[in-house]
Amino acid sequence: MAVATTWVFAEIVDGKPVAAVLELLTKARSLGGTVEAVALSSQAEETAAVLGEYGATTLHAGTDAAYGELLPGGPTADAIAALAADQKPDLILIASTYLGRDVAGRLAAKLDVPVIANGLDVSADGEVSVQSSIFGATQDVTTAFEGKKPALALIRPKSFAAESGGGSPATVTPIATDIAEQHRAVKVVERREEAASGPKLEEAPVVISGGRGLGDPKNFELLEQLAALIGGAVGASRAVVDAGWVPYSMQVGQTGKTVKPTVYIAVGISGAMQHTVGMKSAKTIIAINRDGDAPIFKLADLGVVGDALKILPQVIEEIKARK
């Protein structure tokens, strides 16, 4: 299955494509063939310049204001399925975000094609194949697509670096709006943005994550103090999220967010594969844990065996003194 045309679903938030879209466009350029983007948003046309810069030559844009008022998964999948039936792309790449997973599942059913989820890489050397993680991130497998097109893949954010290709603005091609009545039955009545005092977890240059080794939810305050001092963001292991210590939005790992910071500090985290798959690409990994045999030390560039509740206050005071 050679790739003549690759589509990237361009999820738009606050008038801009999410970072993972630019990562996918960068990867799509390397596969050869034509790269096109599909966006369903009243602000879709405004993204033509940045999508073109990262490689899209065409932007298929649905700009009906209703896309911002309805639950987006259903109408988005309908629009892409109808367009794909007419245009017949070879490959559709979708970022594995909340919306992306919703759209991909619906789209696979409508097009009657399989979808490979949890993708880490894509290649098109003779046939389209996707490298993905399985069995709790303990094994990586490569799966090739055969038969009916398009190939459909969900790719984890941060799998690729977003790099500008210096392209011209994408040519905008309008998508006819035909939103089914069943999708109009449920409307979004309010949107609330989670309050954050620092950088977003996925974008922070430094991420400090805590696990059960912190002993108590209140000890996350130490991580927050340190993050505020060094311009970082606070993350967490699945164990403490499941225990109700912190919200799911802070979870790093296979079933949470993937981060790729300059520095990742794991505090009281043992280092299960389900967690490390979400942070192992950090440039520098620092681990603090009382258990010297914790698996996280095998991944760490710098390991500190000790009580984080004694170590972190000293680190915080030293940083304050140097400032």
Automatic annotation (TrEMBL):
Gene Ontology MF annotations: electron transfer activity; flavin adenine dinucleotide binding
Cofactor(s) the protein requires to work: FAD
Occurrences of domain Electron transfer flavoprotein alpha/beta-subunit N-terminal (ranges): 6-191
GO biological process annotation, one example: fatty acid beta-oxidation using acyl-CoA dehydrogenase
Stored Gene3D superfamilies: HUPs (3.40.50.620), TPP-binding domain (3.40.50.1220)
Residues that, per the record, bind FAD: 212, 237-238, 251-255, 268-275, 289
Pfam families from the UniProt entry: ETF, ETF_alpha
Record-linked InterPro entries: DHS-like_NAD/FAD-binding_dom, ETF_a/b_N, ETF_a/FixB, ETF_asu_C, Rossmann-like_a/b/a_fold
Origin superkingdom: Bacteria
Cofactor note as given: Binds 1 FAD per dimer.
Keyword rRNA processing: no
Family label: Belongs to the ETF alpha-subunit/FixB family.
Descriptive protein name: Electron transfer flavoprotein subunit alpha/FixB family protein
The organism of origin for this protein: Candidatus Aeolococcus gillhamiae
Organism phylogeny: Bacteria, Bacillati, Candidatus Dormiibacterota, Candidatus Dormibacteria, Candidatus Aeolococcales
